[in-house]
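Quick one: structure tokens for this chain, please?
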Amino acid sequence: MLLKLMRCLGLAGVLGGGISAPALAGECPPLLNHTFTTLQDGKPMPLCQYAGKVILVVNTASYCGFTSQYDGLEKLHDRLKDRGLVVIGFPSNDFGEQEPGSEKEIAEFCRLTYGVEFPMAGKTLIKGRNAHPFFLKLADITRSTPRWNFHKYLINRDATQVIAFGSFTKPDDKALVARIDEFLGR
């Protein structure tokens, strides 16, 4: 039965990959029922492992005017991860071809330049007909499609609420931090 459930969720073969017990028990919210690869090593990164956490999804790029937001995103993640926040970066070359490098180059840039330790997915299409279904769903729920790099989606703990924040919203923005605190249960 468990193996059948794992196949249905697309999790077969990734036991030991950091999947939380609730996800294995079938408690993964439909919104999070997607698997990406990690930027650093290409291993499966099922979003179900983050069920029960507040998630800040950010489409990123290394050669963008907003790239310095990596610093604030890392600080935000580091400060609030013990309370249940996870920041997940999704490098994308969709806007102005500002993420042209290989995944290895992107990972190295993020680590060496900004000390990024929050989870990063492999390069992802986030707009257009071929956008990843996760991003299509986020845009549909919020009625907000990313117009540029560093667009943010904030997802509550049970993945029933999603709020969009544009690229100009910095990681320390009072409105963003207030919503994060609200979703964390402060």
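Confidence is low (pLDDT under 50) at residues 1-25.
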